[in-house]
Structures are given as structure tokens and as C-alpha cells.
Amino acid sequence: MKRPLFALEPLRRLRRDGEPVYFVIAGPPMDASVTQSVIEAQRAEPWLRWLGAVPHERMGALYQSCDIVLNTSTAEGLSNAVLEAMASRKPIIASRNDGNVAALGETALLFDDEEGLYRCASSLAAQPLLRRKLADEALERGSRLFTRSHEADAYTRLYRSILEPSQAQSCGGDR
Length: 175
Description:
By secondary structure, the protein is mainly alpha-helical.
């Protein structure tokens, strides 16, 4: 579940604290009720903008224009947005879910609830050196763990484990 507006109240609090927050949501329309809620929130909050679907060739520029990338999904496999943020050397605040924890390790600030998101965002707003440290660590981790060759090797190992003769025989392959 994507939960694009989960961050709205914590970011409102940050704005009340005097932080110059501008919240951009990128992604195609969700189910009708979520889409309507995002449209209504955008009307009410001039600092919130929903871009809709962004063409892949424009995503790099979008990442470069932001200060922090936020992932509020409750369940993720391996989030493209998280990997792209890592490759773009951006600090990340993300929901604590299995996919984000596995991808990010200690290279991001993770939250469990709205209060946790507020604390993470407040910390990054107040600490530019922490933003830089997390961004550098995320870039290094992404460059080490999520390369094309690493991905290809993982698929090769998977396919070999499936196609090994001992596996085929146990499925009746020697008849």
C-alpha cells in the first residue's frame, strides 16, 4: 500500500516549526478514493504537488531537484524509487518494511508511524551533515549491492538452482 498522504500531517508540523517544506508526490493515479484525497489535499495545501506519472527519462531530473526522498509504502519488495534515490545520492526517509530494511540497511532513516516520520524529517531538516552522510552511504551501498552484474549473477544462480539435473530428476525428469 503506497499511502501517499501518510506524510501530510508530519510535514504540516514541520512547516509549523518553520521548515520550508515542499512536498511532491510522483506516480500514476491510485485507486479512485486515494486519487481524490490527493487532489483535495493539493487544493488545500499550496506546498503539496502531485505530478502524476512521470516519464522514466525525466525521473533523474526530478531526483536531482529534491532534497530528500520519502517512501511511505507499508509493504515493498524492492522499491524502484528507493533504488533510484540511492543511485541519485539522496537521503531517504522510509517506512520500516521488509523491502526497505533489506535495501537500505543503515543508510536511511526509517519510521513506523507518523510521529516517527516527523522525527526523521525534523532530524534531516536540522542536520545537513546527516543528510550528506546518509546520501553518501546509500550511494555506496546501492553501487555495491544493486549493480547490473550483481542482479545478473543472482538470476544466474536462481536459474541454475532450478535447472540442476538433481532437481529435474526429482520432478520425474529421468523417465
